[in-house]
Here is the input.
Amino acid sequence: MSEKTNSRWYRFLSSSFLVYVLAVVIALALGAILILIVGGNVGDAYAAMFKGAIFNYDAKSTAKMFAPLTKTIFFAVPLIIAGLALGIGFRAGLFNIGGTGQVLMGAVAAAWVGIFLDLPPVLHLLVALIAAIVAGAIWGWIPGILKAKTGANEVIVTIMMNTISTLFLAFILTKNYWHRPGSSDPRSPVIDANAQAIPLLPKPFQMDTGVIVAIVAAVFMWWFLDRSTWGYQLRAVGANPNAAKTAGMNIGAITAMTMAVSGGLCGLAGGVQMTSTMKYLVSGVQATIGIDAITVALLGRNKPVGTILAGLIFGAFKAGGSVMQIQAKVPVDMVLILQSVIVLLVAAPPFVRWLFHLPSPDGNARKYVTLQADKPSDSSPVVVRHSVPSTASSLQSGEQALRPSAPSCASLPQEGVAINSDETAGVATQAIEEPLIATVASLPRDDGSESALAEEKTERKEGNNE
Here is the structure.
């Protein structure tokens, strides 16, 4: 690789981090245009969002100035946990779209423990969260085992499970024992105080033990994927299921296990939502956590640190969106537009690189998503010549080392291949080496001399005469 591509500046320009930053910038720029279209003030709108999500410089006390930051973290916690959950499934090549149902079932289980059990403080909260994990794991294991045993598509099954969980919640809320005393509203009583999350900071800050749960979940994901045997097998199946099966891995068991772990973490997100945010069971308790978690996982590239940062960004949008609507009179739907644009751009890094003329991380200084890279350049080409291998000489030179400077393959033209000498030499080398590797067993190295060709023609004539 050239000295240019080894520089720090080049590595920064070709990094994925810059793509993510530019995606957020583009989304904010597009949001500014839409705010102007609806007649709003861009400065007031974004200032209100900043004051509601990061730092309220108009507040009269220091505590109230920094309170919005804790509100952002508070809203981000369930998104981070659910994003970690779906990221595990994505790393295994499984599209767990059932986060909504798994979050809901986790919330129902935590609510049941919080309402109907009488346990001491701390223990009551732990049991509620464990029940949420178990409920979510079972709800995720069902699509996993169906896919493993019958080949059922996990996307369709998880979407149907979302509907079943929603109808299940509506059903139990019709029962009197789930209602508040003296009320027929479809809403449960508030969970016991011992089952509620423990505040870590006093008012007006919003931070409780849910933050600790999110950090533990992130550490678990890192350990599970990068340090455990199950995680190694999970990543292997996600990278190449056929190779993993050939290596002796049980694809069905790994699929069911992955969906169960993913569902368990989604259930934990529902448990945190119940014990920390809602504290009672009502229709729509899952909110949009299951859907937003998909975008959080994609934005975080299914990595623990990236998912945490993505969750904080979306938590800031959620915390600042309501303030923006109240103070700047900008519809809160603008937040959804910003989130959608960010996801679209993060899902298409080549487009962002092309838009800003950024280098690609593979070493090519200008690799566009258009067909310009395939067109010949003005620089002088280098011709790499190679010949058709000889049968007789192949038997004698089969154990010799292959020299990439003069490869031999019957599938390559005899006249040569023209490549760009300063930027695409690596591409031409790959184009020559790939078919050579594929046929190395049957086409060993030949010296490429004219005498070898003549000898091969002579042998063919003698064979015909015999």
Q: What stands out?
A: Residues 365-450 have pLDDT under 50 and may be disordered. The two ends are 54 Å apart (CA to CA).
